[in-house]
Design a protein that fits this description.
Structural class: alpha+beta
CATH architecture: 4-Layer Sandwich
Oligomer: single chain
Distance between the termini: 53 Å
CATH topology: Double-stranded beta-helix
Number of strands: 21
Length: about 300
């Protein structure tokens, strides 16, 4: 295959000339890996995707891992995680935003960030697309780091930040809660969705990507909790809070974002060690099916907070 790319809006690239239904030789595999490492977010359109092809394609980028919740995985293809609208489950995933009920809306986050060992990346494939809403946003935190001034970068080199898993969005300190009302069936404890209780995890505020060496701003709003011992970096507690508020606002700038409106046959691959993502959600009753494969991470980037 002869591959070509065009930039997406702001971040990431669309890959042209690729056909998942055709044999993929070693040179093409090497090119795909190099594009992923360079750009972090890759879009492929018009693909004839089957579960077997999605799984085989995803393995080009590393070993796959299964989702821990068995109910969300395919019995035939355990590597496949199925995001599908389900009237029985919708009520647990519904909240109100400025008076409008929305299902499965997610703030900016990095997968498994709350464990200290995020997965390397993931691939989403649109099977049934929402007729309205249902966008997935991607944000490039390497570019967000590059755009910081030198003084802020030097300060962040001295800082650790923590993430604390929470089921209730209203308890997350740095997400935008304006107009938000939790749904009456919103889970209140991790055990409600068969998750364990996760300890608080600390990360350097800037992380060196284990593969590419790129510097990545390790700030995303979901589960963000605090700066560890801010006085060691010359900050008061109030200044520490203000710094995190400023950094979250920085990561929300549109120039670091690409929002994808799904069409059938689309695939998006992103580097979870570099890019955060979010979901705009859909209104109740909207049909949507997305298949996901997850590329395992072999690097521990955070640590359990024990002080």
């Amino acid at each position: 295959m002869t591959l070509d790319i065009t930039p997406l809006e702001n971040v990431g690239v669309e890959v042209h000339g690729f056909d998942i239904s055709q044999p993929i030789d070693q040179d093409t595999e090497a090119t795909l890996i190099a594009l992923w490492d360079e750009h972090g977010i890759l879009l492929f359109r018009g693909q004839d995707v089957t579960p077997e092809r999605q799984i085989a394609f995803s393995r080009i980028f590393g070993p796959l891992e299964s989702h821990p919740i068995k109910a969300t995985t395919s019995q035939e293809y355990p590597e496949l995680f199925m995001l599908a609208s389900n009237p029985e489950q919708e009520r647990y995933l519904t909240a109100s935003y400025h008076g409008q009920p929305m299902v499965s809306r997610l703030d900016w986050h990095m997968d498994l960030h709350y464990t200290g060992k995020p997965n390397r990346g993931a691939l989403l494939h649109a099977v049934v697309c929402a007729e309205e809403d249902g966008l997935t946003g991607f944000g490039d935190l390497a570019l967000a780091w590059d755009a910081l001034d030198a003084e802020t970068q030097a300060l962040l080199e001295q800082i650790e930040v923590t993430y604390a898993f929470s089921m209730q969005r209203r308890h997350m300190r740095y997400v935008d809660l304006e107009g938000y009302e939790p749904g009456p069936y919103s889970p209140r404890r991790p055990a409600d969705i068969n998750y364990p209780n996760f300890p608080e995890i600390a990360y350097p505020a800037v992380v060196t990507h284990p593969v590419t060496g790129r510097r990545v701003l390790e700030i995303c709003e979901q589960f963000l909790e605090r700066i560890v011992t801010p006085h060691k970096a010359g900050l008061s507690n109030d200044e520490a809070v203000e710094l995190l508020e400023r950094l979250v606002a920085h990561t929300r700038k549109p120039e670091f974002h690409y929002f994808h409106r799904w069409e059938q046959g689309d695939m998006v691959l992103w580097d979870n060690w570099r890019a955060m993502h979010c979901a705009t959600g859909t209104r109740p009753g909207v049909k949507r099916v997305i298949h996901r494969t997850t590329i395992a991470g072999d690097a521990t980037l955070g640590r359990v907070v024990d002080d």
